[in-house]
Amino acid sequence: MKIEALRVKNFxxxxxxxxxxxxxxxxxxxxxxxxxxxxxxxxxxLRDALxxxxxxxLQKRGxxxxxxxxxxxxxxxxxxxxxxxxxxxxxxxxxYALVIALDKNQPVIEREILKYRRGERxxxxxxxxxxxxxxxxxxxxxxxxxxxxxxEREEQTVDSPDILALKGLGQFQRFKAANSFRKLIxxxxxxxxxxxxxxxxxxTGYAEHLSTRGENMALVAQFMYEHHRSVxxxxxxxxxxxxxxxxxxxATDTEDGRILLRFQDGSFKxxxxxxxxxxxxxxxxxxxxxxxxxxPHPLLCVEEPENQLYPSLFCGLVEEFRDYADKGGQVMIxxxxxxxxxxxxxxxxFCLSKKNGITVIERASDNPLLAALIRENDLPGxxxxxxxxxxxxx
Length: 394
Ligand SMILES: Nc1ncnc2c1ncn2[C@@H]1O[C@H](COP(=O)(O)OP(=O)(O)OP(=O)(O)O)[C@@H](O)[C@H]1O
Ligand SMILES: [Mg+2]
What we know:
The protein is an alpha+beta fold and 394 residues long.
């Protein structure tokens, strides 16, 4: 499944933003405070709302009045267009739209819709259409392909007007579109490694997936070593390929059942154990664990992957992100590094800037000058350094 478009209104610094034709990898650049993290948090917000309800998701962010764009008193709106796809077929473009407003000082879901069309022009079917906790859901979604069939609707209510219908109905297998969208949002992941946390420290417990800040890295490595040995071995080989100076990485069992990672520095005969290798080495290892997760996140957001890494590693890291996207994942990256940008295509780059406190997002490939320079073999990072990315240098 891939998200193709996103429209957000009145969410923090986003008075109104629109992203269309999103590629499998998109990279967001912009000065501090222009809204890169806010963009990722749109998905985090939806995930929190699914896990609990919109009131709790808002509270986690300071409440409705803190979240709604300053100076605005309208509703918060989020609209996502996505499509199921595999190598053989492309599903219909599905729209999920959510409108959250205040009613007697309480946040409520004013409207929640999930819809798609039969064919390019057909009438769109509202698979879910809810207002203030009440609405309809289509129950014969499986006959959608049959153009003669009539939709069958079912009236539904949710327990309170701050609960997403997607949460209740998405659990039933028969609501296919709702179900797969719910899964995409539930397994959304943001990676924001903090090397201090990710250093091998948490060594007891159990973890299958790397956490946002990476503090369970040693546990995930242990899991991969025990349950996915061939993937784990591939990661070790890639470490040696990707990190200059690391000639070999070995994993050995310790007596107490943990694994010990030994990094062989090309120049020294004795290997270093993971605890004592460099920050960059640990970070690369953590990314490789994340990107080789046997149960990958359909949508992965990565904050500033360049931190702690020497620029010569960026090319390999971006290749790893591309492999992940080629296998069906979608990746969104924020970066402050022109060197990272050199490995990214112009139509994958989105520039964030602020006008009067409000975020503006522009696609780099929409700028004719940049497009012309790239055609002449200039590199995006070099052009960014020269101040040619619009919005960034008002
Ligand atoms: N309700 C709101 N209305 C308007 N602006 C808001 C609102 N809430 C937060 N902001 C602003 O949004 C910005 C948050 O930006 P964000 O953290 O997304 O930036 P960023 O691009 O990730 O920056 P960095 O590069 O420093 O990580 C801040 O400038 C903050 O003041
Ligand atoms: Mg940020």
